[in-house]
Amino acid sequence: IRNLQAAGADTVAFDVDFSARADSAADQALLAAISRRPGSVVLPTFVQALDRRAPARLVENAPLANLSTDALLASVNVLIDPDGLVRRYRYGFSGEGGGRPSMASLLANKPPGQTSDFLIDYGIRDTSLARLSFEDVFRGRFDASEVRGRTILIGSTAQELGDDFATPRHGALPGVYVHALAYE
Predict the structure, then answer these.
(1) Cβ(33)–Cβ(1) below 8 Å
(2) Which residues pair with 15 in a beta bridge?
């Protein structure tokens, strides 16, 4: 976060679960980075089954409360059509605790409260989305002009983490790319 903000990124958004504690020093460093520029870091929430044996009982996973104070929260839930493909994306979700914008909706500055769906434009090639290596950003080995004035979306592309979705045009895509295409 610090390296991206120092390079001039407007917003740093995560499709990474921050609902569990890491070690105290890491949690404090993350909190300090988020608090440095309140409202410029987006953390994810997602709804999932409370128990695999009772899939109708849902619970929202949210970042640790202290991380959420200065961050924006957005849903990273993805709609899957009956045939298993992701064609649509939702502007936001409503639930017991009120409404929550989707990641793409929040990043696109859409007015809050809308929960309708829209079609993802799969005419946009996922390979056209600019990419940076997390390691390079972490080590500060990137050109600041690549992030200056931009929204940066960080998420895993590792298949073994299971955040992949079947799409009608691009095969299986990591969730972070589905959010990026919906944002575009």
Answers:
(1) yes
(2) 155
